Predict the structure.
Amino acid sequence: MTTGIGMPEEEEQSSWLLRLIQVGVSGLIVAPHPNAPTVTPAMIQTADEHKFPLLKAPFELEFVTLARVIIKNSLDIERERLEKAKRIFDAYGDSLSREAGGLGRLEAIARGVGWDLALVDDTSGDVIATSGRRRDARATEQQSTVLAIPGRLRMSLRIRTEPNTVPDALLAHYVVGITALELEQYARSLDERRRDGETVLRSLLKGAVEIRAISSVLEQHKIAGDIVLLSIMAEDGGAYSLSNVHLAPALRSPEVLLLQEDGEFFALAPDDDDVIETFAKLLGSDTRIGVSLPLSPVVGVPEARRQAHLALQDAVEAPRPCAGTGGRTKSRDTFHAALQSPGRWFRKFSARSLTMIKRAAGACWKPWKHSSQRIAHTSRARSNSVSTDRPSFTG
């Protein structure tokens, strides 16, 4: 606070104000003495550029009285801050004792501090959880403070306070710290779920158990309907890697069973275009995925592994992000063109099958030029056949 007597002349006022700002002065009140220099527009502009409070008051203002008001308000603010901090930790401790879920604890923290809180996925921008009522998305973005949450889960905390106010920095630090601890506990639980899924998928790939035997496990991971096996090749550069993709919020419902073993990476997932495409996008644009036929009593997991591996080879050779096994029909462009025209796959596997049959049949093998010719020959052979004690063979 100054009467302006000590202020420099007009040409030096801007540099003088800059020195005050640099040493950490919070604001300046000028109650100008009649003989004091006039505050220049350049000084006001400097204050605006640095968002520095520059206030003018009448000379009759009693600085002592103003100082008392400022000190009292500062103490009141600090007391209120401490009370809110205590409410935050009390509410969080109470939610832990009640064994509330993650969202319940977030709501408890929000009640303690009096803010609306939301967890936001940094990769997709989706709101994962919120303590407040739903609002217009654009208004929420404009009136919120977004703070990064440290840890393995790539999330931010969006804070909404009363209109035209900003959250207290220290209280926000407390809230972010508690949320980070909570998310790390959640990440550890996801690590455990991934290890459980790896054990199950490893047993399936070895043929030690059948898919019917793990229906309860699939239900826990929210995997229902047709299920396919994915063979995956991914390089660094995506939002997630093969080692931490299980932490992605986009794979929470449904989840995906993952296994990385002997240089190969497999996933057991629903036969859903959106899930598979999301999985590929999380790992990056260089990801290649081979998709098996849906699992069934005929197509077991070991057979699905072979199909997915062949499809992955085709995706790498194409190259395309994702390839499926012959007979699958998909409408999305990210899937291999063979899915829209399975004739290529049919010819490829038919040629291999015919070669194996030739080797097994040896001299008995006699190919026919046309299917109609084969049918006609077989029909004539049946009509001309006679009953003997020795069986007759045709074709």
User: Anything to note?
Assistant: Confidence is low (pLDDT under 50) at residues 134-139, 326-345, 363-395. The chain is about 45% helix and 15% strand.
